[in-house]
Amino acid sequence: VQLVESGGDSVQPGGSLGLSCTASGFDFSRSDMEWYRQGPGKEREWVATISGAGLMTKYQDTVAGRFTISRDLRKNTVYLQMTNLKPEDTAVYYCYVQYWRNGAPFDAWGQGTQVTVSS
User: What gap in Å lies between CA 93 and CA 3, rounded to an integer?
Assistant: First the structure.
């Protein structure tokens, strides 16, 4: 199982950025996908979730209305489009999945991609 994030960058407050996470090694279309982030000196926190078919999305309150999670089943890729970025959005962003093998759940994390929001 592999999750590979990309798209992190430095942007100014109010700017936009798009992250991607390409997945392999598990049944992508049946798995909910999630984004987490970990800011400097902070605990890792959940950001957003998208269901396997992409019909359901959920967001942390602080990003709702600014971030959009989506997925492309043909490309095995999940996206996080971020707009109106704030300095407090500065963090390493991680892609996460809980997948199933032989009736047991397993966790997989990407390596993370750095997002810095600063003027």
Answer: 12
